[in-house]
Amino acid sequence: MFIKNNIKKILKKKYKIAIAESCTGGRICYELTKISGISKIFISGVIAYSNSSKIKILNVKKESLIKYGAVSKEVAIEMAKNILKITKSDYSISTTGISGPTGFSKKKPLGLVYIAISNKKITKVYKNIFKGSRINIQKKATEKSIELLVKNF
After folding, report:
1. Which of 60, 79, 120, 131 is the most buried (most CB within 10 A)?
2. What is the dihedral of CA 132, 133, 135, 137, to 10 degrees?
3. In a 10 Å sphere around its CB, with 0-12 CB exposed, 13-18 middle and 19+ buried, how is residue 105 labelled?
4. Which residue(s) pair with 25 in the sheet?
């Protein structure tokens, strides 16, 4: 119900939105498309899970991936800005993170997720550490992404 209520707030604004997902694996798009009438505002969603897809589809700079890593605020920002430009949307969300159970380190812990919200004027990035299983981390990141989108409208 939390997600549905927040998406209904987005629908009322009539802004066009696009999503670039990595660690959430399409969950944000899935939640959006469960809502009747979402086609009026939801332009596109891309799951760019691999670095090569981030480069080829979302135009993330290879240098950014090498210097900062896929799970970084810099890559989250590029993903959000680029999907916004590609789709000519009003707002975008991007997610990149580590949902486990492997792939984490002391520097980048399990549950680390960067969420970026972008519009034509500004891009904000939020660093989160979510606890729980892989599915719980993805679910929490999805909920937080939609909450942040509503907050930034």
Report:
1. 79
2. 40
3. exposed
4. none
Give the integer Cα–Cα distance in Å for 45 and 6.
18
DSSP conformation class of 58 = T
Question: Using CA atoms, how far apart are residues 146 and 144, in angstroms rounded to an integer?
Answer: 6
Task: Write the pLDDT tens digit of every residue in 81-105.
Answer: 999 999 999 999 999 999 998 888 9
In the chain, the domains with their CATH numbers are 2-151 (3.90.950.20)
Q: What is the pTM of this model?
A: 0.95
Which helix (H) or strand (E) covers residue 19, if one does? strand 17-21
How far is residue 124's CA from residue 148's CA, in Å, rounded to a whole number?
10
What letter would DSSP give residue 27? Answer: H
CA 113 to the chain's CA centroid: 9
Q: Tell the residue number behind the tokens 């892989």, with chain if given.
A: 134
